[in-house]
Design goal:
3 domains, 0% strand, 9 helices, Arc Repressor Mutant, subunit A, mainly alpha, 161 residues, single chain
Length: 161
């Protein structure tokens, strides 16, 4: 029971900073166990059971929700750190969010239709740093920059006008 209390306390600390996916939180709690001198030698089965119990409790209480996490993550990407819809989907997969949840959130926010606007905002942010270049070189650099952020050629051309 002490192990579960420790895991729950750590989980609350992590979740107080920001939302996490279930997989992310499991990985963080696992690392915390390995670092903690008292629990680093705990029985693997006991630790796994405590981890599952902790995550289940957090989900039941509404503190851990992959759909909410995905929605907040995508909204944050749209507003503050634009990337292509492909890159955003890939980031969510890496964080352990199920494809069905990813697609539901992307449809809800109409992510694909926002691609040109996100590319336009990124280009506008990058362009002042390229003002010293001739127009054709500046355009080439912007195209490469936006491709590097995962945008498709059509969205890039629409964004650059």
């Amino acid at each position: 029971m002490q192990l579960e209390n420790y895991l729950l306390e750590k989980a609350y600390q992590y979740l107080a900073r920001r939302d996490h996916s279930c997989r992310e939180l499991r990985q963080k709690l696992s690392k915390a166990l390995k670092r903690h001198k008292h629990w680093q030698h705990a029985d693997r089965e006991e630790a796994e059971a405590a981890m599952n119990s902790t995550l289940d409790e957090l989900m039941e209480r509404g503190y851990l929700d992959d759909a909410r996490f995905a929605l907040n993550f995508v909204q944050n990407r749209i507003d503050h750190k634009p990337r292509s819809p492909y890159f955003i989907r890939q980031e969510l997969r890496e964080k352990g969010v199920e494809d069905s949840i990813i697609e539901q959130v992307c449809m809800e926010l109409d992510l694909d239709s926002l691609a040109t606007e996100m590319a336009r905002r990124l280009a506008a942010k990058k362009e002042p740093g390229l003002a010293h270049l001739p127009a054709d070189k500046r355009r080439e650099k912007l195209i490469r920059f936006l491709k590097g952020k995962g945008f498709v050629y059509g969205d890039i051309m629409d964004a650059l006008g």
